[in-house]
Protein backbone atom coordinates (compact mmCIF):
# COMPACT_ATOMS: atom_id res chain seq x y z
CA UNK A 1 0.00 0.00 0.00
CA UNK A 2 1.57 3.34 -1.00
CA UNK A 3 2.23 5.90 1.66
CA UNK A 4 0.05 9.03 1.56
CA UNK A 5 1.68 12.18 0.27
CA UNK A 6 3.10 14.30 3.09
CA UNK A 7 1.20 17.44 4.05
CA UNK A 8 2.76 20.60 2.61
CA UNK A 9 4.95 22.53 5.01
CA UNK A 10 3.55 25.68 6.55
CA UNK A 11 6.38 27.63 4.92
CA UNK A 12 5.32 26.33 1.48
CA UNK A 13 1.72 27.29 2.14
CA UNK A 14 2.81 30.75 3.27
CA UNK A 15 5.03 31.18 0.20
CA UNK A 16 2.20 30.30 -2.18
CA UNK A 17 -0.18 32.57 -0.29
CA UNK A 18 2.35 35.41 -0.34
CA UNK A 19 2.81 35.05 -4.11
CA UNK A 20 -0.95 35.06 -4.67
CA UNK A 21 -1.36 38.27 -2.67
CA UNK A 22 1.59 39.94 -4.40
CA UNK A 23 0.21 39.18 -7.87
CA UNK A 24 -3.25 40.58 -7.17
CA UNK A 25 -4.21 43.80 -8.96
CA UNK A 26 -4.91 45.57 -5.67
CA UNK A 27 -1.54 44.76 -4.07
CA UNK A 28 -0.33 48.38 -4.00
CA UNK A 29 -3.48 49.51 -2.20
CA UNK A 30 -3.14 46.58 0.20
CA UNK A 31 0.52 47.49 0.89
CA UNK A 32 -0.41 51.11 1.62
CA UNK A 33 -2.99 49.93 4.15
CA UNK A 34 -0.39 47.64 5.76
CA UNK A 35 1.81 50.73 6.30
CA UNK A 36 -1.14 52.73 7.61
CA UNK A 37 -1.85 50.11 10.30
CA UNK A 38 1.80 50.24 11.36
CA UNK A 39 2.44 46.64 10.38
CA UNK A 40 -0.30 45.26 12.67
CA UNK A 41 -0.27 41.46 12.45
CA UNK A 42 -3.84 40.98 13.70
CA UNK A 43 -5.76 43.77 11.91
CA UNK A 44 -9.49 44.18 12.46
CA UNK A 45 -11.58 44.03 9.29
CA UNK A 46 -14.51 46.43 8.96
CA UNK A 47 -17.06 47.06 6.24
CA UNK A 48 -19.02 50.27 6.08
CA UNK A 49 -19.24 53.87 4.93
CA UNK A 50 -18.90 57.45 6.20
CA UNK A 51 -20.79 60.41 4.74
CA UNK A 52 -20.15 64.09 5.56
CA UNK A 53 -23.18 66.34 4.97
CA UNK A 54 -23.82 70.08 4.98
CA UNK A 55 -26.50 70.36 7.69
CA UNK A 56 -28.21 73.33 5.98
CA UNK A 57 -28.29 72.23 2.36
CA UNK A 58 -27.98 68.45 2.69
CA UNK A 59 -25.12 68.50 0.18
CA UNK A 60 -22.68 65.61 0.38
CA UNK A 61 -19.28 67.12 1.22
CA UNK A 62 -17.36 63.85 1.31
CA UNK A 63 -18.21 60.16 1.10
CA UNK A 64 -16.07 57.14 1.91
CA UNK A 65 -16.94 53.48 1.42
CA UNK A 66 -14.88 50.36 2.07
CA UNK A 67 -15.98 49.12 -1.33
CA UNK A 68 -12.88 50.85 -2.68
CA UNK A 69 -10.56 48.98 -0.30
CA UNK A 70 -8.83 45.67 -1.17
CA UNK A 71 -11.33 42.90 -0.57
CA UNK A 72 -14.03 45.44 0.23
CA UNK A 73 -12.89 45.75 3.85
CA UNK A 74 -11.00 48.37 5.85
CA UNK A 75 -8.13 47.06 7.94
CA UNK A 76 -7.44 48.89 11.20
CA UNK A 77 -4.81 48.18 13.86
CA UNK A 78 -5.86 45.79 16.65
CA UNK A 79 -4.21 48.00 19.34
CA UNK A 80 -3.48 45.05 21.62
CA UNK A 81 -0.87 45.41 24.36
CA UNK A 82 0.27 41.77 24.07
CA UNK A 83 3.59 41.37 22.31
CA UNK A 84 2.76 37.70 21.70
CA UNK A 85 -0.25 38.72 19.60
CA UNK A 86 0.98 41.78 17.71
CA UNK A 87 4.53 43.09 18.20
CA UNK A 88 3.73 46.29 16.29
CA UNK A 89 0.71 47.42 18.37
CA UNK A 90 2.40 46.23 21.56
CA UNK A 91 5.36 48.47 20.75
CA UNK A 92 3.02 51.46 20.55
CA UNK A 93 1.57 50.53 23.94
CA UNK A 94 5.08 50.08 25.37
CA UNK A 95 6.18 53.47 24.08
CA UNK A 96 3.09 55.14 25.57
CA UNK A 97 3.69 53.46 28.93
CA UNK A 98 7.32 54.55 28.84
CA UNK A 99 6.33 58.18 28.28
CA UNK A 100 3.67 57.96 31.01
CA UNK A 101 6.08 56.57 33.61
CA UNK A 102 8.97 58.85 32.69
CA UNK A 103 6.76 61.96 32.77
CA UNK A 104 6.00 61.15 36.40
CA UNK A 105 9.72 61.15 37.20
CA UNK A 106 11.20 64.04 35.22
CA UNK A 107 8.16 65.98 33.96
CA UNK A 108 6.61 66.51 30.56
CA UNK A 109 3.18 65.63 29.13
CA UNK A 110 1.61 68.22 31.43
CA UNK A 111 3.73 67.33 34.48
CA UNK A 112 6.13 70.05 35.76
CA UNK A 113 9.87 69.31 35.70
CA UNK A 114 10.06 70.06 39.43
CA UNK A 115 8.56 66.62 40.05
CA UNK A 116 12.10 65.22 39.74
CA UNK A 117 12.88 66.68 43.18
CA UNK A 118 10.09 64.74 44.91
CA UNK A 119 11.03 61.59 46.89
CA UNK A 120 10.53 58.53 44.66
CA UNK A 121 11.49 54.87 44.88
CA UNK A 122 11.32 51.78 42.68
CA UNK A 123 9.63 49.07 44.74
CA UNK A 124 9.33 45.35 43.98
CA UNK A 125 6.84 43.17 45.88
CA UNK A 126 7.10 39.43 45.34
CA UNK A 127 5.11 36.29 46.10
CA UNK A 128 6.02 33.90 48.92
CA UNK A 129 7.38 30.41 48.31
CA UNK A 130 4.99 27.59 47.45
CA UNK A 131 7.71 25.01 47.04
CA UNK A 132 11.33 24.86 45.78
CA UNK A 133 11.84 25.45 42.06
CA UNK A 134 14.80 25.34 39.73
CA UNK A 135 16.53 28.71 39.69
CA UNK A 136 19.59 30.39 38.22
CA UNK A 137 21.83 31.58 41.04
CA UNK A 138 25.01 33.61 40.86
CA UNK A 139 27.84 33.70 43.37
CA UNK A 140 29.76 36.64 44.83
CA UNK A 141 32.04 36.75 41.80
CA UNK A 142 29.07 36.93 39.43
CA UNK A 143 29.43 33.40 38.08
CA UNK A 144 26.57 30.91 37.90
CA UNK A 145 26.52 28.44 40.79
CA UNK A 146 24.61 25.22 41.46
CA UNK A 147 20.83 25.51 41.53
CA UNK A 148 19.96 23.93 44.90
CA UNK A 149 22.90 22.03 46.34
CA UNK A 150 22.16 19.98 49.45
CA UNK A 151 25.14 18.53 51.30
CA UNK A 152 23.17 15.59 52.64
CA UNK A 153 21.21 14.98 49.45
CA UNK A 154 18.14 12.91 50.17
CA UNK A 155 14.67 12.71 48.69
CA UNK A 156 11.29 14.31 49.35
CA UNK A 157 8.24 12.33 50.57
CA UNK A 158 7.44 11.57 46.92
CA UNK A 159 10.85 10.05 46.24
CA UNK A 160 12.26 12.96 44.24
CA UNK A 161 15.80 14.30 44.93
CA UNK A 162 15.70 17.54 46.93
CA UNK A 163 19.07 18.61 45.56
CA UNK A 164 19.94 20.06 42.15
CA UNK A 165 23.60 20.72 41.36
CA UNK A 166 23.00 21.89 37.78
CA UNK A 167 24.28 25.34 36.78
CA UNK A 168 21.29 26.40 34.73
CA UNK A 169 21.73 28.54 31.64
CA UNK A 170 19.46 31.53 31.15
CA UNK A 171 17.36 29.69 28.55
CA UNK A 172 17.09 26.40 30.46
CA UNK A 173 13.43 25.23 30.22
CA UNK A 174 13.70 23.77 33.74
CA UNK A 175 13.95 27.26 35.30
CA UNK A 176 10.86 27.97 37.38
CA UNK A 177 9.74 24.33 37.32
CA UNK A 178 9.22 22.68 40.75
CA UNK A 179 11.93 20.40 42.09
CA UNK A 180 9.05 18.04 42.93
CA UNK A 181 5.67 18.92 41.36
CA UNK A 182 3.84 16.85 43.97
CA UNK A 183 5.41 18.91 46.79
CA UNK A 184 4.49 22.24 45.16
CA UNK A 185 1.46 23.96 46.69
CA UNK A 186 -0.59 24.48 43.53
CA UNK A 187 -3.83 25.51 45.31
CA UNK A 188 -1.89 28.08 47.34
CA UNK A 189 -0.15 29.47 44.25
CA UNK A 190 -3.39 29.85 42.29
CA UNK A 191 -5.22 31.47 45.20
CA UNK A 192 -2.30 33.84 45.82
CA UNK A 193 -2.38 34.99 42.19
CA UNK A 194 -6.12 35.55 42.47
CA UNK A 195 -5.68 37.70 45.60
CA UNK A 196 -2.59 39.64 44.47
CA UNK A 197 -4.66 42.68 43.34
CA UNK A 198 -6.36 42.82 46.76
CA UNK A 199 -2.99 42.53 48.49
CA UNK A 200 -1.78 45.52 46.48
CA UNK A 201 -4.88 47.54 47.40
CA UNK A 202 -4.38 46.80 51.08
CA UNK A 203 -0.69 47.60 50.73
CA UNK A 204 -1.49 51.10 49.44
CA UNK A 205 -3.93 51.67 52.33
CA UNK A 206 -1.39 50.51 54.92
CA UNK A 207 1.28 52.66 53.28
CA UNK A 208 -0.84 55.80 53.62
CA UNK A 209 -1.79 54.95 57.22
CA UNK A 210 1.88 54.62 58.16
CA UNK A 211 2.73 57.97 56.54
CA UNK A 212 -0.16 59.67 58.34
CA UNK A 213 0.70 58.12 61.70
CA UNK A 214 4.35 59.14 61.34
CA UNK A 215 3.26 62.73 60.70
CA UNK A 216 0.80 62.73 63.62
CA UNK A 217 -2.19 63.05 61.25
CA UNK A 218 -5.36 61.18 60.54
CA UNK A 219 -5.54 59.45 57.15
CA UNK A 220 -8.39 61.77 56.13
CA UNK A 221 -6.24 64.81 57.00
CA UNK A 222 -3.19 63.47 55.14
CA UNK A 223 -4.76 64.42 51.80
CA UNK A 224 -4.64 68.08 52.79
CA UNK A 225 -0.83 68.09 52.93
CA UNK A 226 0.46 65.09 50.94
CA UNK A 227 -0.45 62.89 47.98
CA UNK A 228 0.89 59.38 47.40
CA UNK A 229 1.31 58.77 43.67
CA UNK A 230 2.30 55.51 42.00
CA UNK A 231 2.56 53.62 38.72
CA UNK A 232 2.91 49.84 38.77
CA UNK A 233 3.18 46.86 36.47
CA UNK A 234 2.68 43.14 37.12
CA UNK A 235 5.30 40.63 35.98
CA UNK A 236 5.12 36.86 35.95
CA UNK A 237 8.01 35.01 37.51
CA UNK A 238 9.06 31.80 35.82
CA UNK A 239 7.42 29.79 38.59
CA UNK A 240 4.02 31.19 37.53
CA UNK A 241 3.53 33.74 40.35
CA UNK A 242 3.05 37.45 39.72
CA UNK A 243 5.04 40.15 41.42
CA UNK A 244 4.67 43.90 41.18
CA UNK A 245 7.13 46.62 40.20
CA UNK A 246 6.02 50.09 41.24
CA UNK A 247 7.20 53.67 41.20
CA UNK A 248 5.99 55.31 44.42
CA UNK A 249 6.31 59.09 44.74
CA UNK A 250 5.44 61.58 47.49
CA UNK A 251 3.83 64.84 46.30
CA UNK A 252 2.17 67.89 47.76
CA UNK A 253 -1.62 68.10 48.19
CA UNK A 254 -2.14 69.00 44.51
CA UNK A 255 -0.03 66.13 43.20
CA UNK A 256 3.09 66.77 41.11
CA UNK A 257 2.35 70.50 40.83
CA UNK A 258 3.74 71.23 44.30
CA UNK A 259 6.39 69.76 46.58
CA UNK A 260 5.60 67.51 49.55
CA UNK A 261 6.16 68.77 53.10
CA UNK A 262 9.74 68.68 54.41
CA UNK A 263 9.06 65.71 56.68
CA UNK A 264 8.04 63.54 53.66
CA UNK A 265 11.49 62.13 52.94
CA UNK A 266 12.82 59.14 51.05
CA UNK A 267 13.63 57.46 54.39
CA UNK A 268 9.98 57.78 55.42
CA UNK A 269 8.88 56.34 52.08
CA UNK A 270 11.15 53.32 52.50
CA UNK A 271 9.98 52.74 56.08
CA UNK A 272 6.35 52.91 54.97
CA UNK A 273 6.96 50.33 52.24
CA UNK A 274 8.68 47.95 54.70
CA UNK A 275 5.81 48.31 57.16
CA UNK A 276 2.98 47.93 54.64
CA UNK A 277 4.56 44.92 52.90
CA UNK A 278 4.72 43.01 56.19
CA UNK A 279 1.42 44.18 57.65
CA UNK A 280 -1.24 43.22 55.10
CA UNK A 281 -2.91 39.83 54.65
CA UNK A 282 -5.87 38.39 52.75
CA UNK A 283 -7.71 35.31 54.02
CA UNK A 284 -9.46 32.57 52.07
CA UNK A 285 -11.81 30.04 53.68
CA UNK A 286 -11.32 26.31 53.81
CA UNK A 287 -13.15 24.46 51.04
CA UNK A 288 -13.17 20.83 49.96
CA UNK A 289 -9.57 19.61 50.42
CA UNK A 290 -8.08 23.12 50.53
CA UNK A 291 -7.34 24.47 54.03
CA UNK A 292 -7.93 28.08 55.04
CA UNK A 293 -5.02 30.29 53.98
CA UNK A 294 -3.51 33.64 54.92
CA UNK A 295 -2.02 35.26 51.83
CA UNK A 296 0.92 37.62 52.37
CA UNK A 297 3.71 39.23 50.36
CA UNK A 298 6.97 37.37 49.97
CA UNK A 299 9.98 38.19 52.13
CA UNK A 300 11.96 39.63 49.20
CA UNK A 301 10.91 43.29 49.11
CA UNK A 302 13.25 45.52 47.13
CA UNK A 303 13.26 49.33 47.59
CA UNK A 304 15.64 51.48 45.56
CA UNK A 305 15.67 55.28 45.25
CA UNK A 306 15.25 56.72 41.75
CA UNK A 307 17.69 59.40 40.59
CA UNK A 308 18.36 61.32 37.39
CA UNK A 309 21.92 59.92 37.37
CA UNK A 310 23.50 56.82 38.83
CA UNK A 311 22.63 53.12 38.88
CA UNK A 312 18.82 53.40 38.81
CA UNK A 313 17.79 56.34 36.64
CA UNK A 314 14.35 57.53 35.59
CA UNK A 315 15.01 56.27 32.06
CA UNK A 316 15.94 52.78 33.28
CA UNK A 317 12.86 52.53 35.50
CA UNK A 318 10.49 53.76 32.78
CA UNK A 319 11.97 51.32 30.27
CA UNK A 320 11.74 48.41 32.71
CA UNK A 321 8.09 49.01 33.58
CA UNK A 322 7.12 49.65 29.95
CA UNK A 323 8.80 46.40 28.89
CA UNK A 324 6.65 44.25 31.16
CA UNK A 325 3.45 46.18 30.37
CA UNK A 326 3.29 44.30 27.02
CA UNK A 327 3.74 40.83 28.47
CA UNK A 328 1.45 38.44 30.32
CA UNK A 329 1.50 34.85 31.52
CA UNK A 330 2.61 33.38 28.17
CA UNK A 331 6.24 33.85 29.26
CA UNK A 332 5.61 31.14 31.89
CA UNK A 333 4.72 28.64 29.18
CA UNK A 334 0.95 29.02 29.20
CA UNK A 335 -1.56 30.39 26.66
CA UNK A 336 -2.35 33.99 25.80
CA UNK A 337 -6.06 33.25 25.38
CA UNK A 338 -8.89 31.96 27.57
CA UNK A 339 -9.38 28.25 28.10
CA UNK A 340 -12.38 27.12 26.08
CA UNK A 341 -14.95 24.55 27.34
CA UNK A 342 -13.92 22.29 24.44
CA UNK A 343 -10.23 22.39 25.39
CA UNK A 344 -8.63 19.28 26.83
CA UNK A 345 -6.06 20.49 29.37
CA UNK A 346 -3.92 17.44 28.67
CA UNK A 347 -3.56 18.47 25.01
CA UNK A 348 -2.81 22.17 25.51
CA UNK A 349 0.59 23.31 24.15
CA UNK A 350 1.86 24.44 27.56
CA UNK A 351 4.59 23.43 29.99
CA UNK A 352 3.90 20.75 32.58
CA UNK A 353 4.02 23.27 35.44
CA UNK A 354 1.59 25.63 33.67
CA UNK A 355 -0.69 22.68 32.91
CA UNK A 356 -1.01 21.83 36.59
CA UNK A 357 -1.64 25.47 37.50
CA UNK A 358 -4.36 25.69 34.83
CA UNK A 359 -5.92 22.43 36.00
CA UNK A 360 -5.92 23.72 39.58
CA UNK A 361 -7.68 26.92 38.46
CA UNK A 362 -10.38 24.85 36.77
CA UNK A 363 -10.75 22.58 39.80
CA UNK A 364 -10.96 25.38 42.36
CA UNK A 365 -13.19 27.42 40.06
CA UNK A 366 -15.86 24.74 40.38
CA UNK A 367 -15.92 25.08 44.21
CA UNK A 368 -18.68 27.37 45.47
CA UNK A 369 -16.51 29.10 48.09
CA UNK A 370 -14.14 30.32 45.36
CA UNK A 371 -16.77 31.22 42.74
CA UNK A 372 -16.18 34.97 43.22
CA UNK A 373 -12.55 34.62 42.16
CA UNK A 374 -13.57 33.59 38.62
CA UNK A 375 -10.69 31.15 38.44
CA UNK A 376 -12.19 29.26 35.49
CA UNK A 377 -12.34 32.39 33.32
CA UNK A 378 -8.78 33.36 34.28
CA UNK A 379 -7.17 29.92 34.19
CA UNK A 380 -4.97 30.98 31.24
CA UNK A 381 -3.59 33.72 33.53
CA UNK A 382 -2.99 31.15 36.27
CA UNK A 383 -5.63 32.81 38.47
CA UNK A 384 -4.46 36.44 38.22
CA UNK A 385 -7.21 38.73 36.94
CA UNK A 386 -5.85 42.18 37.74
CA UNK A 387 -4.71 44.92 35.39
CA UNK A 388 -1.09 44.61 34.28
CA UNK A 389 -0.32 48.31 34.40
CA UNK A 390 -2.09 50.81 36.64
CA UNK A 391 -1.38 54.24 38.07
CA UNK A 392 -2.87 56.63 40.59
CA UNK A 393 -4.81 59.64 39.37
CA UNK A 394 -2.14 62.24 40.07
CA UNK A 395 0.94 60.31 38.93
CA UNK A 396 1.14 61.78 35.41
CA UNK A 397 -0.81 61.87 32.16
CA UNK A 398 -3.02 58.98 30.99
CA UNK A 399 -2.78 56.49 28.15
CA UNK A 400 -6.09 57.85 26.87
CA UNK A 401 -4.63 61.36 26.69
CA UNK A 402 -1.59 60.09 24.78
CA UNK A 403 -3.83 58.24 22.31
CA UNK A 404 -6.01 61.33 21.85
CA UNK A 405 -2.94 63.45 21.12
CA UNK A 406 -1.80 60.92 18.52
CA UNK A 407 -5.24 60.88 16.85
CA UNK A 408 -5.36 64.68 16.73
CA UNK A 409 -1.86 64.79 15.26
CA UNK A 410 -2.81 62.31 12.53
CA UNK A 411 -6.04 64.18 11.84
CA UNK A 412 -4.09 67.41 11.41
CA UNK A 413 -2.17 65.81 8.54
CA UNK A 414 -5.35 65.69 6.44
CA UNK A 415 -7.52 68.47 5.08
CA UNK A 416 -10.44 69.24 7.38
CA UNK A 417 -13.87 68.81 5.82
CA UNK A 418 -15.95 71.99 6.22
CA UNK A 419 -18.97 73.63 4.60
CA UNK A 420 -16.73 76.38 3.24
CA UNK A 421 -18.90 79.15 4.64
CA UNK A 422 -17.32 81.97 6.64
CA UNK A 423 -17.57 83.00 9.39
CA UNK A 424 -18.29 79.60 10.91
CA UNK A 425 -21.36 79.28 13.10
CA UNK A 426 -22.73 76.35 15.15
CA UNK A 427 -25.09 75.62 12.24
CA UNK A 428 -22.09 75.04 9.98
CA UNK A 429 -20.85 72.01 11.93
CA UNK A 430 -20.54 69.14 9.46
CA UNK A 431 -22.95 66.26 10.01
CA UNK A 432 -21.17 62.88 9.93
CA UNK A 433 -23.19 59.71 9.28
CA UNK A 434 -21.27 56.45 9.67
CA UNK A 435 -22.18 52.77 9.52
CA UNK A 436 -19.68 50.00 10.30
CA UNK A 437 -19.89 46.22 10.49
CA UNK A 438 -17.28 43.90 12.00
CA UNK A 439 -16.10 41.18 9.62
CA UNK A 440 -13.26 39.49 11.44
CA UNK A 441 -9.64 39.78 12.50
CA UNK A 442 -6.26 38.48 11.45
CA UNK A 443 -4.38 37.71 8.26
CA UNK A 444 -3.16 34.72 6.30
CA UNK A 445 0.41 33.39 6.76
CA UNK A 446 1.48 34.86 3.43
CA UNK A 447 0.06 38.27 4.28
CA UNK A 448 1.87 38.17 7.61
CA UNK A 449 5.18 37.57 5.83
CA UNK A 450 4.51 40.36 3.34
CA UNK A 451 3.49 42.81 6.07
CA UNK A 452 6.68 42.09 8.02
CA UNK A 453 8.78 42.57 4.87
CA UNK A 454 7.03 45.80 3.86
CA UNK A 455 7.03 47.49 7.25
CA UNK A 456 10.17 46.06 8.82
CA UNK A 457 8.16 44.99 11.88
CA UNK A 458 8.79 41.63 13.64
CA UNK A 459 6.68 38.64 12.67
CA UNK A 460 4.65 37.17 15.57
CA UNK A 461 4.97 33.45 16.23
CA UNK A 462 1.24 32.78 16.06
CA UNK A 463 -0.20 29.31 15.88
CA UNK A 464 -3.30 28.44 13.86
CA UNK A 465 -5.18 28.20 17.16
CA UNK A 466 -4.28 31.79 18.03
CA UNK A 467 -5.44 33.29 14.74
CA UNK A 468 -9.09 34.30 14.70
CA UNK A 469 -11.32 31.98 12.69
CA UNK A 470 -13.50 35.03 12.06
CA UNK A 471 -10.93 36.41 9.60
CA UNK A 472 -12.88 36.93 6.35
CA UNK A 473 -11.82 35.27 3.16
CA UNK A 474 -10.98 38.69 1.75
CA UNK A 475 -8.27 39.26 4.35
Fold topology:
Blueprint: H1 10-22, H2 27-36, E1 44-53, E2 60-65, E3 74-76, H3 87-106, E4 120-125, E5 137-138, E6 144-145, H4 186-214, H5 219-222, E7 227-236, E8 242-251, H6 266-279, E9 282-284, E10 293-295, E11 302-305, H7 314-325, H8 352-365, E12 389-391, H9 399-412, E13 431-441, H10 445-455
Antiparallel strand pairs: 1-2, 1-3, 1-13, 4-8, 4-11, 5-6, 7-8, 7-12, 9-10
Helix pairs in contact: 1-10, 3-7, 4-6, 4-8
Please explain how this structure is put together.
Helix content is 30%, strand content 15%. It is an alpha+beta fold and 475 residues long. Among the domains are: 115-130 and 185-307 and 330-395, no CATH class; 132-179, no CATH class. The chain is globular and about 85 Å long.
What descriptive keywords fit this protein?
disordered C terminus, single chain, 30% helix, alpha+beta, five-stranded antiparallel sheet, 475 residues, disordered N terminus, 15% strand, four-stranded antiparallel sheet
Shape: globular
Query: What is the oligomeric state here?
Result: single chain
Could you say which structural class the secondary elements and strand pairing correspond to? alpha+beta
- Computed over alpha carbons, the radius of gyration is 27 Å
Describe the strand arrangement of the main beta sheet, using strand numbers: 11-4-8-7-12
Low-confidence stretches: 1-9, 462-475
Helix-strand topology string: HHEEEHEEEHHEEHEEEHHEHEH
In angstroms, what separates the terminal alpha carbons? 40 Å
Number of strands: 13
Task: Report mean pLDDT, rounded to a whole number.
Answer: 88
DSSP strand content: 15-25%
**What's the helix count?**
10
